[in-house]
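notes to self, project folder thing:

trying the whole complex as one job this time. last attempt i did each chain seperately and stitching them together was a nightmare. two parts in total, labels are on each line so i dont mix them up again. if this works i'll redo the older ones the same way
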Amino acid sequence: MKALRVVATSVASAVPTLILATFIVFFLQRLIPGDPAVALAGDYATPERLAEIRADLGLNEPLLQQYLSWLGGALTGDLGQSFRTGQPVADLVFERLPLTLILTGLALLVAVAIGLPAGVLAAQRAESRFDKFLTTAATLGIAIPNFWLGMMLIVVFALQLGWLPGPGGPSLADDPAEAMRGLVMPAVALGAVGAAEIARQVRSAMIENLSADYVRTHRAKGLPSRSIIWKHALKNSSLPFATILGIQVSRLIGSAVVVEAVFGLSGLGSLVVEATNQRDYTVIQAVVFVAAALVLLTNLIVDISYRILDPRIA
Amino acid sequence: MADATAKTVTTVEVTTAKRRAGRLAVWASYAILAVVALVVVLADLIAPYEPNAQDLNAILLPISGDHLLGTDDLGRDVLSRMLHGTRVSVVAAALAVGIAVVIGFPLGVLAGYSGRWVDAVVMRIVDAVMSFPAIVLAIGITATMGPDINTAMTAVGIVLAPTIIRLARAQTMAVKQQTYIEASRSFGARGLRRLILPHVVPNVIQPILVQVAILMGFALIAEASLSFLQLGVRPPTASWGSVLSRSYTFFDQAPVQIFVPGAAIALTVFALNIVGDEIQRLLDPKRR
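result (full assembly):
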């Protein structure tokens, strides 16, 4: 019952943010310069066609009603229709979503697999040469644009060494194994910056924990250093770690858009780029909506895990 | 068992160690930023060629004495484009950060100072904007309004504003509790002109400076990302992002050319982050 209450509390506190976020997405359509109907139908559309589009978009109705009917649709999975192909936008988005999710997941894996041990080791040897090297490397890592890192990886590992496939490989549906091989470089490019950020944050959280009284007590009673660091101090750093992971997911989804473009992967990123070139406003809006929904979902999970990890918060 | 005696590191020790270790990086960062600033001012004088001048008899030339960074697929001198692009990129990033501060600072101070419902409303909006991946929302706004560097950087400024709002709010709330504010109030100082502008604002600005350095770095990467996606500067204008984007279309023929713009971005952002940390250290009253 307690778990249920925790989830309910978290969801309830996320609702106002969710409503405001959907309003921002809805408002995007108001940013279309001039008459949205003309923008959608082109300059040579007949007045009848324009009227049809206005009716379709509900442009003649009051703003609040437009918002509510859009929201009703969005929450039930109806994100409107593409103005270029007439396809349901939700279909387009869900066709591309898996690739972006897999890429983001892999990148998160790379980020944690490198960043977490690096941060712990740096904290363990704080102020050593190793720590200084790692801290500087992390600061440099944060500064590198990940889509540029992706290009450099392509030049080295695809063009020069030929170890990994370059851009333009098969899709996940056609040849899963080869497609996954093609995701290695994008995942590393995307995850490297995250690894640098995670390493920095984990390091400072761990340094704080390693100077805490309970660590001294554990040492005094003769607990091995390894167990103190990897079990007790790391467990006590789990709150800041959850926060970092939440922030990373948001960053990774954003950066994935650009990295996908570099590697020619057909995920949400390339969908929004194509939609931009074709002025397919409903698709742009849907991608922004889905990206925000993913972040809000992540934040919700982080919030719930807070309440479970630290009973004082619930 | 060297591990068993691993010593407990105090924050003071770490700070001193970092202080010594970081000097080289700090001086290098100042140097990098000074060079970037010089290039922004002097781009016209030091660029050897017109940045947009095409020479179709000299396309994709390798690095040489005539063209220190080679030429691109339209025969334009890459060095000249990079130098002029520095100005475009830095000005664009400054525009974004300027907008973030202009929106964020007053709202943050207002929220922190007034508290109650004003604070609640502002913070809800901040949460909502922050629930979008920054770059995705910037893309959404720019793609809808039409690709253009000013639109793109305004959008980036809007998505960066919540960071400033949060910081200014937290700082204002801390300042509000200070004794000197209480003293000023007891002398009858109230409102914007007598209390907030002369006493609160100067004490909130300092941490904002640190954040401005870090956000400049973010904005530079955002410019490059948006220009790479054709949402930023329009051809033929050069920016770090557009030079990188262009060179990526022929990278199999001249891989060196994608290196330079990316390295320029990475080094500048690195320098901004280091200098940001340094400002923070200098402003910290506890450092002595």
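what i see at first glance: The radius of gyration of chain A is 24 Å.
need to look closer tmrw
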